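Per-record layout

source: Thermus scotoductus
name: DUF5666 domain-containing protein
length: 478
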Amino acid sequence: MAKEVRFSRLVWLALGLAILASCQMNPSGSTPQAVQVAGVVGGTETKPTLLGKPLDLQGTSLTKEGKPYGGSVLPGMVVVAQGTDQGNTLRLQSLEVQVELKGPIAALDVNAGTLTVLGQQVLTDANTRIYEKVGGSYRTLLLSDLAIGDVVEVQGTATETGILATYIERHPRGNNEVELEGRATNLDEPAKHFTLNGYTVDYGQAHVVGTPREGVWVEVKGTLSGTLIQATKVVFKTSGNNQFGASRRVELEGPILGLDPTQKTFQLLGYTVDYSAANVVGTLVDGAYVEAKGQVDANDPTLFHAQLVKVKYPKSYPAKAEAKGTVSAIDHQGNTFSLGSLGFYVDATTVLKRDDPDGPIAFTDIQVGDYVEVQYDPTRTDADMRYYAVKVEVKTSQDGEGMEEWEGPVSHLDATSYTFQLLGYTVTTTEATRFEWRDQAYSRADFFALLQNGDRVEVKGTLSGTTIAAEKVELKGR
């Protein structure tokens, strides 16, 4: 069963719940109250949130897959956290980052928004964040920036048929460390081999947790060579791993898969959620992003009995392009808006949100002058050739960098005057402007010899009237 997927990591959560059991829940929020949550990080890189509230990580024990973690807590990451709700912030005692899958991309379909990693299908939508670490900082990518052979780490909601990703990080090629989960088949205990998603797993030298058994769900970490995985750790998710105490109140937040309206269950971040006795607000469908409050079953720590399930964002679709800039025009009745010369339309499935405080908004909350990040599908247009906006996020900050940043397709390229148009603005450059592509610096002449109309660029600089004086121009994708 898919509910077994996160068995060992849920042990970590359940044991921690007992530590906080003595804290009293106070709905008024007048005094700190215990928080136990499995969810997806929101906000920004420098101001991460959970359950829509900023995180106080000072003194927090940070781990990733059970090991100490000193990296950033980024939007899209799946975490299990414990602490107290201080009213305006969540002060955390511990936070663990959870990874579902890591390995090379074997297949990629940008139009469908899917990729295949180690025999598992990974689905993406408007809420999927894709990153790459360059130097000491992270930059965002689109699915089209990835390629077959890239090594990626995937976090999200998993079922036996696939993973709906909330976080994908591209790692340097040549990294042969892998993580994957699934059903163990063709088990050969004397040889210490089994098959997993078409790969042969050798667990002869691995740290083994649980009892090897044909057909059980397993979690594997190791190194990949061809179709052989030399395991360093294997967790067999058998009933013998179940050492849980009494149930505790927990909050879940993230995308759902495996919805079963007859049984009134769905999968969410490693739990099977039973919503048969829950107050459901909104329409449940696979891919919807929900908040769920309830209790973990006293005897089965992978079963969650929901009391309240609220749809936070609707089921959304993969994004194929991205633009950043200031809203120059908006028609709330017509559900359209513009970033300079680039027009968009929204519908009931468009994800509308803000980053601070993190949470959903109505289209009428977006105003002219707002700085927004738009993920869109250039293959879907209305009668006026406006693009379909898959997601619109109002950015209240850029982590201290101000609002002088734009992203979109290049037009009216002039390699003689070293100018081009972006979102209807004229972008001017000088020899002092920094030019970059694929982490490499370019001279102005070499960069403009490379640049083509239609290329996606990110520009940082200063706007005066309809002219952007660029301090940095980065070619994205290609």
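summary: Residues 376 and 390 are 5 Å apart (CA to CA). The first strand starts at residue 33 and ends at 40.
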